[in-house]
Automatic annotation (TrEMBL):
Gene3D superfamilies: P-loop containing nucleotide triphosphate hydrolases. It is found in: Cell membrane. It comes from Paractinoplanes rishiriensis. Its main location: membrane. This is ABC transporter ATP-binding protein. InterPro entries: AAA+_ATPase, ABC_Ni/Peptide_Import, ABC_transporter-like_ATP-bd, ABC_transporter-like_CS, P-loop_NTPase.
């Protein structure tokens, strides 16, 4: 599978006293259409890495080494470090979009959902006609399970879950190749979380964007990720296929992290284990198919 993003030797410091080395020499590639989970305990550097990739860090943060290179479908490469302010602004919603934990609170309360949504198109697709813009906004809302009639609403009239769905729809508006999601559902209750995650998985299958999904909820990552990177103290200590990471973790810290979730080891693990069993069964089926094909 071809890569959509290459992150190479990426390091970020916070220039405070004493200096915090938040991200240390991180390298990984993201394949087209894959969900890469980024796991690790609070403070290990997940958000700093995510904000760093899209150059949204503010002082005292400083990228001290490395590159994040976006690979366009036409074969062109875009080194995020070499973009100017305006190019970065353009590229952000267009090529890589982001949904952060508090994203739903970044909607302007006194501007209708429609106006905020359409603003993305007027800014980034100035040639698009009004009718087309309206149609797309409605379609996108419906994609995330929100009635298009809600376009007329103001953010305060929507529940938290709905506002977060609106943000996800907005992040998809320009059909980016990559969505970075940093704890996108943490503020929501578990049922709404699951619904939204299912929706994201379905949309990924439909539209083919890649996702970097950040959370310290490892059981959840195991359910939704193709591969998982485990971070500790600013470094990726293990990166591998989600199933393998669950069934045969290599690094001591990954084992500790897995063990720290009773839902993965105790009786309450049936939900995750059920999902993982389904995956194992699917993998078995593929294996059997391969064996049948080669015999
Ligand atoms: N503005 C700042 N100034 C100084 N240090 C910071 C700043 N922001 C973050 N850090 C430090 O950088 C390190 C990485 O933080 P970061 O928020 O990236 O971790 P995280 O894994 O995303 O944590 P969480 O899961 O809690 O969001 C931590 O040690 C944190 O204390």
């Amino acid at each position: 599978m071809s890569s959509v993003l290459t992150v190479q030797n990426f390091s970020v410091d916070y220039l405070v006293e004493p200096v915090v080395h938040a991200v240390k020499d991180v390298s990984f590639t993201l394949s087209r259409g894959e969900v890469l989970g980024l796991a690790g305990e609070s403070g290990c550097g997940k958000s700093t890495l995510a904000y760093g990739i899209v150059r949204l860090l503010k002082p005292p943060a400083m990228i001290t080494s490395g590159h994040a290179v976006f690979h366009a479908p036409d074969g062109g490469d875009l080194d995020w470090n070499e973009l100017g302010t305006e190019e970065l602004r353009q590229a952000r919603w267009d090529k890589i979009s982001m949904v952060f934990q508090g994203a739903m609170n970044s909607l302007n309360p006194v501007v209708s959902v429609r106006d905020q949504f359409e603003d993305i198109f007027t800014t980034h697709r100035p040639r698009m006609g009004r009718r087309e813009r309206r149609r797309r906004c409605g379609d996108l809302l419906e994609r995330v399970g929100v009635d298009r009639g809600r376009l007329n609403a103001y953010p305060h009239e929507l529940s938290g879950g709905m506002r977060q769905r609106v943000m996800i729809a907005m992040a998809m508006a320009l059909e980016p190749q990559i969505m970075i999601m940093d704890e996108p559902t943490t503020a929501l209750d578990v049922v709404v979380q699951r619904e939204i995650l299912r929706e994201i998985a379905r949309l990924r299958d439909e539209l083919g964007f890649a996702v970097i999904f950040i959370t310290h909820d490892l059981p959840l990552l195991l359910e939704i990720s193709d591969r998982i990177a485990v971070m500790r103290s600013g470094e990726i200590v293990e990166l591998g296929n989600a199933l393998q990471l669950y069934t045969a973790p290599q690094h001591e810290y990954t084992k500790q992290l897995l063990a720290s979730f009773p839902s993965l080891t105790g009786d309450r693990g049936s939900f995750v284990r059920g999902a993982m069993d389904d995956r194992l069964l699917a993998l078995d089926a593929v294996q059997v198919g391969k064996e049948a094909a080669s015999s």
